[in-house]
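Researcher: Next entry in the queue.
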Amino acid sequence: MLIDILTILLPPAYAFVIYAYGRAFFSDTHWAQVAKRKMLLGLLALHATYLIIRTVAFDHPPATNMFEILTLIAFTMTAAYTAIEIRTKQHETGYFVLMFAFFFQLISSLFIEDLIEVKEVLRSAYFGLHVAAALAGYSAITLSAVYGFLYLTLYHEMKKSQFGVIYRKLPSLENLERMSVFSVWLGFIFLAVAMVAGIVWLPQAFTDFSYADPKLIGTFTIWVIYGIALAARRSAKWKGRRMMVIAIGGFVISVFSMTAINLFLTSFHKFV
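Model: Structure for this entry, 272 residues:
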């Protein structure tokens, strides 16, 4: 079955693209420098095909259990990175970012199940849009933190006059900041789409829903935090290290708030 073949193929496909980005970063290998972007786009097309086939074959968006969600996270993270690479014309960080996507896809491919019978609410197109947009938003937020961490790493190496491979290969501080801020913008936009889709879909899907749901409040709070940071960057000129600390801090707050909500608070979102 084609779905099974693609499930097996995706992890080694990710590994091969990571290998190309690694050779380009650490060894300046010519074939890797030339081919890595095309390989990345091919990988993205392969993964998109896999998700579409799963959706059509099982008549529901691939977001009904943890391992389907992991492959969606891998895809949205790869798609967000691709958009950032194309937008900023900086391709030196692909090796580091795609490692996360590979890990998520590997776990998914090892344990994913083909579910035909699911709750009717999980077949909604609004549900698919809501989940995909939310995952894309949080993937972009994660990337903003990764770029913030790389920014601070490079910053401290420069202060110590340690001009090693990180200094020579990573983008400049200015470009790392641009990549982090662009990631924040992506996260801000996708979380907005997720909330709008949720507002439209929730009344149709649940009779007992409430806009005071902890996950809705948590997502809205995170969205507001990043909105304030983006506004402050324009009006108060929050740039450089301050913005990178905010990117990392916002990510940490996101992880802890969502973890606390899942562990300690009740939510009608617990249907996957």
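Model: The chain has a mean pLDDT of 86.
Researcher: Noted, moving on.
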